[in-house]
């Protein structure tokens, strides 16, 4: 099979599965069978992706097949080949690596879901897997896109699936609201991508990311707006924590590992375009760094384990965006890769914990380590990778980001990232100590290890979460100059801060006595972080801005525009009614009128001559 | 046969109406059957139109017979890339709407059938007509059955809505009639004989002042039909009161006659007038996009919501038309068809729930996805099409319109602004449509009346399935449609721009705004768009600036 065929299998097999489940309601409602088919398709997709990856390792891969989609030649297009709108497959190190990441995580999540969602009604179970398959299709469409238009198509489709999956428990009002919020926020941001495409199309006649254009600055800034929405950058991040209303495996796949990383992937993909726009990159570096720090602060005070992880995702995406803003495609994408593994692992493990205690709340957990050793160990591995503890995958990628940002002289973002590294270790330490150790709550007393479908994916993901970092040189070699990792002062500083964070967490939450003084010292920051300032600002704009404006327009339409029309109508009727008494029907009245009129006209004729 | 295809298409519904007329009114089943059969035969026959040469801009399947030689009234019909898809939309939507809503009509079935058949014939006639007299006849003929449908089979306030609809449309039409007569008189003055034929009248050169008035009269008639802000208030009332079948046809086809009228008549006949008022109309279009969207969001009645969304969507169509770019125009025509499909489907869906609950108030619903899962799924798909999600039909049309507006030389500096404001309309579409989805389908069931609602029946499913297929077919393979409209659209754009340049050389024309003499002397490249690009931007920009500075002409 050619490389292109493999990529098509990766993409269209899941679509076929989704369509099959759509048109055969019987199969869908069977539940388990639907899940099995979906998992089988995802396994084949992963196999194809791995084959592609092997080939890419052997020789640098660049394969591209496109077909004409729309016939319209744009004005001013010189190159006939460029002037048509095309869809197709573009395979290089970047897209192949991303395919593997997506397929690995998707397969693990689907296997995990078999167990996690087992108590759902069969019809809903089937629906869930239909959407999972659809997601894999949409995400792979995005990844193999040969131009930004196809990327946008995939981008919108993953947004749709995200909406559907966040609203999976649609009977719950909060889930329905969260789905709506996510769709609205991302749609708002996506118009940036549309605008970017339109500007690019006008000036280059196509949607290629390889072109040299004088409008790169505008285009990239518009694209970055969409990235901020999708990859949850401040201040458009507010939908992501709410998206945790979806089932936990969905959070792992869409809202941690892959879909939210699509924004980062876009920037890495369109690197040639972003390179031409240093000012956009600067904006990215600052927005990313601020998000990393800001979200980490909020994560510290969350009591919902999924919310902690959600804000942590925001924060880590901030790292990636900052790295890309510093101009380092490698650092950003490498962190995307490792983060996908360890964050998916964290979410799935958290899902296992939630499943066991039937609560998201950290205070309902505690002491779970002794009851579910495997899940808890997986969680700890993921957490240590996230904290950047040496040896784990996150250490390498985070270290690389810090070095790159430092090397490019972006000192303020660098400082923010360092501080965020400390906070990351601190909040993860807090979660571990509260959830896994300490005194078990009443919920946690009957917890027990989950079944094999929920532990196997943890093992599968734990391996790359542990080891992916060691292949950094190979991986980065696939799509850029290979990066050689070495120990530096910056790295040691970050590591030290991370360990400090863990230590602080231990003193505050783990140590038998103490911690009260420390907690009091941190309290003001905590209150600020817990206040949800950005959320409230958006809500105010929504309520007092948009809704109020809509009411005003509605009133205007009803009483002014339509009111005037109705007034005109009633005025005509009324005038007719007033004039009606003139037509008395009495002959003598008409004769009088004629006589008077004749007299008046005659007089006028005489005097006005 | 094929040279009389259009006449056949026009005769078939009218003949069927005649058959129904002489059928005893008790034979309800026969009447329903023969009506739908005639419409299906019409649909099949209209596929014959696809067999034309749309790679040229010439009229296909043309027919021409002089009717009244003294006054130059000609039966002149034809179809080109612009009208082809609207004709097919008409023949496609009418049987669907009829079939889906039969059970809703319990009284005067015979008259209802005659109305629908007459309506179909009249709409097709208006799309085919290439003679202003014929067009006007069909244009007014369309009004009668629609007013009856609203006024007889409508809701509680049907008389108010029908009268409002009638008066609004009439005001515009009468002025258009005056304009047509003036135009023909001018033609007589310049050539010595009468003609109502579009091709002849297009050759007439008119001074700018006359063009402005004439264009205004035509534009008012069409703008009311579209409907453009601020002439839209008849639409929500008409839609809410009309029976489902009427609503579907009204939204899917009748409104398109307005936008089509701009393309076929108002703009080619009076390019300078149109050009002067272009920024003003584009401004109204953008206002309509946003205004309609906010109004839609505000509605409690879901049918009104869909009606206002039409105002918003047709604002997009008008914006694309006034970009006068290949992209904008093609996108507009595509979007006309898309709107017909999506909004037609939405009205059918609203009809479905109204038949079950006899209310359309959003607050009365909630949690319907539990009892009506198939209905909910279809509704969400159609919503996504209405919102313009890629892979559904709405995306390409909207994208091309925004791109067209952005790069329009005619809109000049205001183009990007229009595109930006239009884009906010796309976001707002997601806001109001998904708001409705949330209120109708999600959350828990709060009203006991909703507990036992049956899901889609087979009849409803059969009616909706073709629409769903088209939503994805056009979304995935829009190339076929765009290919066949390309020649006509390009010719439209080039004729329009050329006539603007030509108008400048005409001695009686005071239109100094359009293109300077130095560009008029340039050799003209093959592509109209290349020509537009070759011309210096400044004059167009200046034209816009002048209009802005001087206010609307």
Task: Please describe what this structure looks like.
The complex is a heterodimer of chains A (609) and B (553). With 609 residues, chain A is mostly helical. Chain A is built from 24 helices and two strands. Chain A has a two-stranded antiparallel sheet with strand order 1-2. In chain A, helix 8 (216-230) runs parallel beside helix 13. Chain A is elongated, with a radius of gyration of 31 Å. The termini of chain A are far apart. In chain A, 56% of the residues are buried. Residues 74-82 of chain A have low confidence and may be disordered. Chain B has a two-stranded antiparallel ribbon with strand order 1-2. Chain B contains 22 helices and two strands. In chain B, helix 10 runs antiparallel to helix 11. The longest helix of chain B has 34 residues, at 158-191. Chain B has one domain. Chain B is globular and about 75 Å long. The model of chain B is unreliable at 505-553 (pLDDT under 50). Chain B is mainly α and 553 residues long. Chain B is 73% helix and 3% strand.
How many strand elements of chain A?
2
Give, in spatial order, the strands making up the sheet with the most strands of chain A: 1-2
* Helical coverage of chain A, percent range: over 70%
> Which secondary-structure class do the elements of chain B indicate?
mainly alpha
Helix content of chain B: over 70%
């Amino acid at each position: 099979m050619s490389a292109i065929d493999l990529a098509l299998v990766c993409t269209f097999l899941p679509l076929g599965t989704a369509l099959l489940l759509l048109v055969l309601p019987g199969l869908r409602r069977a539940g388990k069978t639907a899940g099995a088919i979906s998992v089988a398709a995802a396994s084949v997709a992963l196999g194809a992706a791995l084959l592609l990856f092997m080939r890419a390792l052997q020789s640098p891969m660049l394969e591209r097949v496109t077909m004409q989609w729309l016939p319209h030649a744009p004005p001013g297009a010189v190159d006939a080949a460029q002037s048509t709108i095309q869809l197709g497959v573009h395979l290089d190190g970047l897209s192949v690596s991303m395919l593997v990441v997506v397929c690995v995580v998707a397969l693990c999540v689907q296997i995990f879901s078999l167990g996690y969602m087992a108590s759902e009604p069969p019809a809903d179970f089937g629906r869930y897997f239909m959407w999972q398959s659809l997601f894999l299709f949409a995400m792979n469409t995005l990844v193999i896109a040969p131009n930004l238009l196809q990327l946008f198509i995939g981008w919108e489709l993953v947004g749709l699936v995200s909406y559907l999956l966040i609203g999976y428990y649609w009977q719950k009002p909060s889930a329905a609201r969260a789905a709506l919020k996510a769709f609205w926020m991302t749609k708002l941001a996506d118009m940036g991508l549309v605008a970017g495409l339109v500007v690019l199309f006008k000036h280059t006649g196509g949607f290629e990311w390889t072109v040299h254009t004088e409008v790169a600055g505008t285009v990239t800034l518009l694209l970055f707006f969409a990235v901020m929405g999708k990859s949850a950058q401040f201040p458009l991040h507010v939908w992501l924590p709410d998206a945790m209303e979806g089932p936990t495996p969905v959070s792992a796949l869409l809202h941690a590992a892959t879909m939210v990383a699509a924004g980062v992937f876009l920037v890495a993909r369109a690197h040639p375009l972003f390179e031409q726009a240093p000012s956009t990159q600067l904006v990215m570096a600052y927005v990313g760094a601020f998000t990393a720090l800001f979200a980490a602060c909020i994560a510290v005070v969350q009591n919902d384990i999924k919310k902690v992880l959600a804000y942590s995702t925001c924060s880590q995406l901030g790292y990636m965006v900052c790295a890309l803003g510093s101009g380092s495609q490698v650092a950003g994408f490498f962190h995307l890769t490792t983060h996908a593994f360890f964050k998916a692992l964290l979410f799935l493990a958290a899902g296992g914990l939630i499943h066991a205690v039937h609560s998201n709340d950290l205070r309902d957990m505690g002491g779970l380590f002794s009851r579910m050793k495997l899940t808890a160990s997986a969680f700890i591995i993921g957490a240590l990778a996230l904290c950047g503890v040496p040896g784990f995958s996150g250490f390498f990628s985070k270290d690389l980001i810090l070095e790159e940002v430092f090397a490019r002289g972006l000192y303020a973002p660098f400082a923010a990232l360092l501080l965020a590294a400390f906070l990351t270790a601190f909040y993860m330490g807090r979660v571990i100590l509260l959830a896994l150790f300490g005194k078990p709550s009443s919920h946690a007393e009957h917890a027990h290890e989950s079944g094999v479908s929920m532990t196997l994916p943890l093992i599968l993901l734990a391996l790359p979460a542990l080891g992916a970092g060691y292949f950094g040189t190979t991986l980065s070699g696939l799509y850029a100059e290979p990066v050689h990792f070495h120990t530096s002062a910056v790295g040691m500083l970050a590591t030290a801060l991370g360990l400090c964070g863990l230590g602080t967490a231990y003193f505050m939450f783990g140590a038998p006595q103490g911690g009260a003084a420390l907690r009091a010292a941190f309290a003001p920051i905590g209150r600020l972080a817990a206040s949800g300032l950005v959320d409230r600002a958006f809500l105010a704009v929504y309520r007092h801005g948009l809704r109020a404006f809509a009411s005003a327009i509605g009133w205007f339409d009803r009483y002014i525009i339509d009111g005037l029309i109705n007034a005109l109508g009633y005025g005509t009727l009324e005038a007719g009614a007033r004039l009606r008494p003139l037509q008395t029907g009495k002959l003598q009245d008409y004769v009088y009128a004629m006589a008077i009129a004749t007299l008046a006209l005659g007089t006028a004729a005489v005097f006005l001559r | 046969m094929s040279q009389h295809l259009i006449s056949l298409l026009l005769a078939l519904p009218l003949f069927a109406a005649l058959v129904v007329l002489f059928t005893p009114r008790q034979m309800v089943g026969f009447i329903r059957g023969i009506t739908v059969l005639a419409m299906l035969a019409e649909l099949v026959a209209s596929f014959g139109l696809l067999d034309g040469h749309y790679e040229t801009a010439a009229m296909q399947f043309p027919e021409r017979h002089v009717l009244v030689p003294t006054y130059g009234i000609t039966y002149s019909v034809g179809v080109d890339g612009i009208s082809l898809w609207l004709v097919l939309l008409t023949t496609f939507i009418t049987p669907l709407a009829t079939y889906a809503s039969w059970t809703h009509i319990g009284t005067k079935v015979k008259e209802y059938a005659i109305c629908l058949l007459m309506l179909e014939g009249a709409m097709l006639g208006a799309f085919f007509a290439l003679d202003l007299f014929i067009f006007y006849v069909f244009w007014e003929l369309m009004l009668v059955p629609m007013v009856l449908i609203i006024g007889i089979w409508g809701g509680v306030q049907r008389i108010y809505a029908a009268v409002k609809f009638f008066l609004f449309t009439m005001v515009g039409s009468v002025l258009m009639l005056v304009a047509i007569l003036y135009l023909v008189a001018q033609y007589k003055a310049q050539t010595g004989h009468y003609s109502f034929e579009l091709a002849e009248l297009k050759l007439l050169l008119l001074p700018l002042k006359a063009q402005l008035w004439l264009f205004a009269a035509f534009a008012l008639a069409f703008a009311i039909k579209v409907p453009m802000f601020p002439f839209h208030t008849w639409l929500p009332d008409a839609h809410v009161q009309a029976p489902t079948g009427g609503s579907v046809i009204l939204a899917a086809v009748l409104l398109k006659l307005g936008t089509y009228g701009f393309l076929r008549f108002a703009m080619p006949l009076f390019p300078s007038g149109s050009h002067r008022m272009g920024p003003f109309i584009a401004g109204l279009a953008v206002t309509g996009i946003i205004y309609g969207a906010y109004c839609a969001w505000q509605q409690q009645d879901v049918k009104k919501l869909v009606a206002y969304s039409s105002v918003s969507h047709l604002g997009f169509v008008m914006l694309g038309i006034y970009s006068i770019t290949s992209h904008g125009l093609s996108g507009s025509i595509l979007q006309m068809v898309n709107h017909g499909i999506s909004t037609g489907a939405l009205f059918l869906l609203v009809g479905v729930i109204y038949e079950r609950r006899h209310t359309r108030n959003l607050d009365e619903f909630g949690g319907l996805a539990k009892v009506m899962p198939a209905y909910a799924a279809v509704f969400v798909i159609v919503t996504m099409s209405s919102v313009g999600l890629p892979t559904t039909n709405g995306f390409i049309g909207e994208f091309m319109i925004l791109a067209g507006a952005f790069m329009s030389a005619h809109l000049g500096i205001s183009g990007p602004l229009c595109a930006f404001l239009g884009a906010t309309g796309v976001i707002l579409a997601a806001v109001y449509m998904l708001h409705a989805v949330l209120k109708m389908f999600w959350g828990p069931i709060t009203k006991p009346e909703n507990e036992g609602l049956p899901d889609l029946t087979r009849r409803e499913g059969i009616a909706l399935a073709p629409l769903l297929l088209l939503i994805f077919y056009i979304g995935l393979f829009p190339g076929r449609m765009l290919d066949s409209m390309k020649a006509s659209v390009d010719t439209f754009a080039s004729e329009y721009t050329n006539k603007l340049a030509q108008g400048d050389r005409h001695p009686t024309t005071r239109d100094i705004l359009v293109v300077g003499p130095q560009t008029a002397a340039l050799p003209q490249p093959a592509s109209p768009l290349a020509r537009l690009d070759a011309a210096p931007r400044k004059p167009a920009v200046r034209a816009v600036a002048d209009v802005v500075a001087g206010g609307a002409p």
